[in-house]
Amino acid sequence: MAHRSNGVSALSRAVQVLDTFSPDAPTQTLKEISQRSALPTSTAHRVVGDLVDNGLLERLADRTYRVGNRLWELGSRTPGAVGLREIAMPYIHGVQARVRQHTQLLIRADLDVLVVDRLSARDAIVNASIIGGRHPLQHSSSGIVLLAFAQDDAVERILERGLKPVTASGIQSRSELVEVLARVRHDGFAVSEGYLHPTSRGIAAPVRGAQDVVVGAIGVVVPNNGSDVAEISVLLRHAAQRISDDLLRCYLPPEHPDARPGGSFRQMVRSSEQSMEFLAHHDGFSQAE
Amino acid sequence: MAHRSNGVSALSRAVQVLDTFSPDAPTQTLKEISQRSALPTSTAHRVVGDLVDNGLLERLADRTYRVGNRLWELGSRTPGAVGLREIAMPYIHGVQARVRQHTQLLIRADLDVLVVDRLSARDAIVNASIIGGRHPLQHSSSGIVLLAFAQDDAVERILERGLKPVTASGIQSRSELVEVLARVRHDGFAVSEGYLHPTSRGIAAPVRGAQDVVVGAIGVVVPNNGSDVAEISVLLRHAAQRISDDLLRCYLPPEHPDARPGGSFRQMVRSSEQSMEFLAHHDGFSQAE
Predict the structure, then answer these.
(1) Which of B133, B197, B286 sits opposite A278 (nearest CB)?
(2) B197 and chain A in contact, CB less than 8 A
């Protein structure tokens, strides 16, 4: 294949450089990028230059770099993250209005859970979730939900990677993991008590997509105080069901009587009813001139 | 420079392919991608394969493609989009709770305005804003705000590109644009009446960043009914000021007495107070193992 050196494509190296940026290292010097990417300095310099030329990195006045808004723009066209978030958001808000701690939407990224959005009350308990951040699937209730309904060999691969519990309350063994996953499949929700922090408890339910496959999880993080989770689990399962219903209606043909309004925008946008009507008649409107 | 053919880098071609996806075309066939990218078919095929290998595109069961969640993840590390949104969100919610129509956060993307987030009431007026969508700066109140405080030659370049008003109420001439921009700089907010749709009116105020440079705009879209904008403009300017104050505190050295809590996460994350304290002591926590 063209444009490869040592079997690695130019694009792979660009991803390697972009991946050195993280929520706790949003700005880096060229030297830091080079070190964290494990690329030779001259290669790192060239890749950074190419990324800057394409607006995917921005060079600041103090000669540090940060991820460019252009990359965010291109990534905003993901039905699996931004589209799901748009469709789910009214229900996430509905849960948060009741729970008043943390309510969040998560998706699976291979063996990790990826945080798509999070609403947090100012006085809420400790929650390690960061938008765009990851945790190993087995370390949170949302991850456990995604793992319980995984249709691949994720469980085996997680056991190979090692469970590495963060606290003494985390999942310690294969048998414990298998038991927890069976219970989640039976109950339709997961509870994680102190897996990531002793004072916090996660509760999460699966969100099914148009093909009845689990495409995400809606979860809350609340105090780990032993209180009954029945009310919250019903609230979450109800919200998850409504998100699933809306997803289904966004993926029906636009002319179907149950289809949501908004034409070809439905899978990515949830705005007011009048706005959706307007958009439905303006396909191509979103293209900058 | 290596890895270029015809002076175009492999990365540029990848961006060209990704840019064919839009909020109203989130899923495409290989043929559609190839046609919209204006790349030769064989090149488009190769670039798509490379993007799939890196998780930046996903191939679906029906052989169509969509933007991969991995691209969203990499793009979530933008202080200028996601970081700004996290810091601004409580104030966006505060404005929306009062206005109950549309409240949104926007940033500049050269000569366009880019929508970072939007809250919409179900019964709100028509608003063409889509998350990740663009409009020419001169077509909305938020764009006018960003143009009024632009520190480059954006006004001249917009006049070269052509004003192309969407409605008869839009800005029609150089002299009108110059007058509007002068008024915005004097008033500290912009009003656009029916620029994009006759029933809608936009009102927006500038958000200043740590260097006192305008880094975004907070705006509302409300009915174009001629009512007094004084109250809303004060609400927006107050919210913008509070976002600016918080941005400043997120960019102070962590040990400064006025710095916001959260250590190296402050510029990208706004969670509960206990969560920020926790994160401050867990730099590197966000890295997947």
Answers:
(1) B197
(2) yes
Distance from C-alpha of B116 to C-alpha of A193, rounded to nearest angstrom:
35
Q: Which helix (H) or strand (E) holds A112?
A: strand A112-120
Q: How far apart are CA A266 and CA A254, in angstroms?
A: 9
Map tokens 């085996």 to a residue.
A156
Q: Which chain B residue lies closest to A289 (C-alpha atoms)?
A: B136
Chain A residues in contact with B265 by the CB 8 A cut-off are: 23-24, 130
Asked if A73 contacts A80 with a C-beta cutoff of 8 angstroms, the reply is: no
Task: Enumerate domains of chain A plus CATH numbers.
Answer: 4-74 (1.10.10.10), 79-251 (3.30.450.40)
Distances, alpha carbon B131 to alpha carbons B48, B80, B85, B282, in Å: 24, 15, 12, 31
| pLDDT tens digits in sequence order for chain B, 289 residues long | 444 555 678 999 999 999 999 999 999 999 999 999 999 999 999 999 999 999 999 999 999 999 999 999 999 999 999 999 999 999 999 999 999 999 999 999 999 999 999 999 999 999 999 999 999 999 999 999 999 999 999 999 999 999 999 999 999 999 999 999 999 999 999 999 999 999 999 999 999 998 889 999 999 999 999 999 999 999 999 999 999 999 999 999 989 999 999 999 999 999 999 999 999 988 655 443 3
ipTM of the complex as predicted: 0.95
Q: What's the token pair of residue A59? A: 């060079």
